[in-house]
Amino acid sequence: DAKTTQPPSMDCAEGRAANLPCNHSTISGNEYVYWYRQIHSQGPQYIIHGLKNNETNEMASLIITEDRKSSTLILPHATLRDTAVYYCIVRVAGGTDKLIFGTGTRLQVFP
Amino acid sequence: GAVVSQHPSRVICKSGTSVKIECRSLDFQATTMFWYRQFPKQSLMLMATSNEGSKATYEQGVEKDKFLINHASLTLSTLTVTSAHPEDSSFYICSATGSNYGYTFGSGTRLTVV
Known about the structure:
The complex is a heterodimer. Chain A is 0% helix and 47% strand. Chain A has strands at residues 9-13, 18-23, 31-38, 45-50, 55-56, 61-64, 70-75, 84-92, 105-110. Chain A is globular and about 40 Å long. The N and C termini of chain A lie far apart (36 Å). The mean pLDDT of chain A is 93. Chain B has strands at 4-7, 10-13, 19-25, 32-38, 45-51, 57-58, 67-73, 76-81, 90-97, 104-105, 109-113. Chain B starts with a strand and ends with a strand. Classes of the chains: A mainly beta, B mainly beta.
């Protein structure tokens, strides 16, 4: 079973920040938080990952709470092309362990 | 970045026939590949894990004789749906990973069995 909990859906106005929460209260000390997204009828796309520090790249920012039991993916200026299902996954970094997807959050960006 | 090519993107086949889906890592050696299935409005469900040169490891409830997986090289894995039936109609997605690479997904194959 997936080790994360996400809201099933969220809406966001175009140009505004989209904040997608994820709970991972049973995360282990060596597990990272990964975020992927899936645009309709495509394969998942990697967004970002982190261990305990906040991370930022060209796509998004990842904020992880100090106790690491939850995190938030931030899309700073959402566009219509960001409409997708966003998946939060916890796993050990490196290696070839399988990725188990939960139900994800369906983000709808509206004009 | 790492690229995974999946082919075909769409396939329609008659009930009772077999269909082969290919997954190729184009610019890296994929020691491990994964196959997922996704039904409409549902999440990805892992079917099996394959390591190059080894037999695939199937998830519980996935019929190994129906979904044949071959991973004969570090750049190619194939999934063959044998004796396909309408209930096998789904979106099949592969993922590949190798040393120093994250998980890269193919673009998926939409299988329709008529």
